[in-house]
Amino acid sequence: MKSTRIVLAIFTALCCASAIAQTATPASDAMPGMNMEQHAPKPTDVSSTAAFQAADQKMMSGMSGVEYTGDADRDFVAHMIPHHQGAVEMAKVELKYGKDAKLRKLAKDVIAAQNKEIAFMKQWLEQHPPKH
User: pLDDT for 118-132, tens place per residue?
Assistant: First the structure.
């Protein structure tokens, strides 16, 4: 019992230290002449970042908005449709902002493949109405 309390105390201390470290603001005067903000990674294209974030949010919202039915097939398809649509949206962001020719080709391929799969899944849902 005593060893369990010691382990819990150590675990609690480590968790607290981790939380403090994650929320602590770095001191700008920790090293004279060093501005910590200059070393934080910054996105090179905030427009593409905003577009990716919007696509991510739309996908997650679409997936979380689908209720589970207990029918594995319907649940799989219903949740995969917004997931695949998210892939299409992200590929469109790559086409709009991306520069790499191979990635742009991949994005075009993703759009074609995902749209084909989305059409199949929607058709499957229509052909397999929910069981009541």
Answer: 999 999 999 999 887
Lookup result for tokens 């742009």: 104
CA distance 84 to 92: 13
The whole-model pTM stands at: 0.63
Tell whether 2 is covered by a domain. no
The DSSP result for 54-112, as a single string, is HHHHHHHHHHHTSPP-S-HHHHHHHHHHHHHHHHHHHHHHHHHH---HHHHHHHHHHHH
Structural domain tally of the chain? 1
Kindly state whether residue 3 falls inside one of the protein's structural domains. no
Neighbours of 49 (CB within 10 A): 14
In this predicted structure, the answer to whether residue 84 has a pLDDT above a threshold of 50 is yes
Q: Between 64 and 37, name the one with better pLDDT.
A: 64
Maximum distance among all Cα pairs of the chain, rounded to whole angstroms = 70
